[in-house]
Amino acid sequence: MKIRERIAKLIDVKTLVTFTLTAVFAYLACTKEIEPQIFMSVYTMIIGFYFGTQHEKAKNKDEEGNHNDEERY
């Protein structure tokens, strides 16, 4: 995969939101605006959502590939 394609996939709205929220909550935790427990709860939820949707996207893509292979035969 080319570097340009990887960067294009990285610059996705969902990815940008995830990174932005991570940065904001990390800043708030470092400046002690929020408690570390709250930060961990929110951060875990954000990362879980991000990787959960990435996993689901890959799973759907894999299922489509298998479905297309079955149609050929």
Instruction: Summarize the amount of helix as a percent range.
Output: over 70%
> How many distinct helices?
3
| Mean of all residue-level pLDDT scores | 77
Shape: elongated
What's the order of the H and E elements?
HHH
Please identify the structural class as seen in this structure. mainly alpha
Tell how many strands the DSSP assignment holds. 0
**Could you tell me the radius of gyration in angstroms?**
18 Å
Sequence stretches where pLDDT stays below 50 over 5 or more residues: none
Domains, number? 1
End-to-end gap = 29 Å
Strand content: under 5%
Let me know the largest β-sheet: none
Question: Would you give an account of this structure?
Answer:
The protein is built from three helices and no strands. It has helices spanning 3-10, 13-30, 36-72. The longest helix has 37 residues, at 36-72.
What are the main properties of this structure?
73 residues, mainly alpha
Q: Could you outline the blueprint of secondary structure elements for this entry?
A:
Blueprint: H1 3-10, H2 13-30, H3 36-72
Helix pairs in contact: 2-3
Question: In brief, what are we looking at here?
Answer:
The chain has helices at 3-10, 13-30, 36-72. It has 73 residues and is mainly α.
